[in-house]
Amino acid sequence: METHSEFIVSDDWLKARLGDPNLSVLDASWYLPAAKRNGRDEYEKSHIPGAVFFDHDKVCDETSGLPHTLPSPEKFAQFASEMGVNADDTIVVYDGIGFFSAPRAWWMFRVMGAKNVYVLDGGFAGWQKKHYPVTNEPTKIKKASFQVKFEQDKVVLIDEMRQLVDGETTQIADARGHKRFLGEEAEPRPGMRSGHMPGAHNIPFSTLSTDGNFKDLNKIKTIFKDAGINVAAPVVTTCGSGVTAAVLALALESLGNHNVRLYDGSWSEWGSKKDTPVVTGTDGDE
């Protein structure tokens, strides 16, 4: 088995291709409020030359009442085109940490039909450590017309998620931190119950990388196996708001599992409803 994900590129790889007219580089940095960091502000102060900002709080369905819900294919095409991205570009996304919010953008572009989409290993922090070029100059957006081919079957919505939980027919992988999963730590968003879905398995997204670098695929496979996930069988990934669930999706796709789906509403939706079943503690679901 390959030990390196086909969806991840190194900073050396990216640096050698800066300026390629068919390359689109996106800074997809986003942070939870507790981090006290602002992705757009940091982008405007310093970013990889040629990068444009991918705003998770804007590239979403703002009418859903939930954070970061996938926009309609038409709206996504509009957002992507405004960012200067075509579906056949080589698209590289990064964030300030390495593997936090960038995989969500990776997942969104792939769901909307782009094929050559990659995440920068080490993120912007790794790029800076190598003293590679950065700039605060605004990127000139090239004209684009993103053509969508929406893979709707990669997205799970609430009604189907209820059926999957009730039927216990599909593996559920939850990317949140372990204490949040157990219900021992309050959710960062008000009004949500704590705990997890019955039958879910916990793979905190942070365990899949070290210092912003994605782990060896053999190690990642072991992490999933130890958590009770069969990486060759169908999996639905979830998290707090659909962002870090994409880290798990990236990992599973990297392991060759192409039957991976993402519950877009995630805990922001499930935990805010009064009639969805919630489990606290381990209950054998780790």
From TrEMBL:
Q: Does the keyword Iron apply?
A: no
What's a single GO CC term here? cytoplasm
The record's annotation in Pfam families points to:
Rhodanese (PF00581)
Which Gene3D superfamilies has this protein been placed in?
Rhodanese-like domain
Sorted alphabetically, which keywords does the UniProt record give?
Answer: Cytoplasm, Repeat, Transferase
InterPro entries reported for this sequence? Rhodanese-like_dom, Rhodanese-like_dom_sf, Thiosulphate_STrfase_CS, TST/MPST-like
Which reaction is this enzyme known to catalyze? 2-oxo-3-sulfanylpropanoate + [thioredoxin]-dithiol = [thioredoxin]-disulfide + hydrogen sulfide + pyruvate + H(+)
From what superkingdom does this record's organism come?
A: Bacteria
For this protein, what is any one GO molecular function term? 3-mercaptopyruvate sulfurtransferase activity
- Compartments where found: Cytoplasm
Name all Rhodanese domain ranges.
19-136, 166-279
Major subcellular location class = cytoplasm
> Is Transferase one of the keywords?
yes
Q: Which PANTHER family match?
A: SULFURTRANSFERASE (PTHR11364:SF27), THIOSULFATE SULFERTANSFERASE (PTHR11364)
Name of the protein described by the UniProt record:
Sulfurtransferase
Q: Which organism does this sequence originate in?
A: Bartonella apihabitans
Q: What is the lineage of its organism?
A: Bacteria, Pseudomonadati, Pseudomonadota, Alphaproteobacteria, Hyphomicrobiales
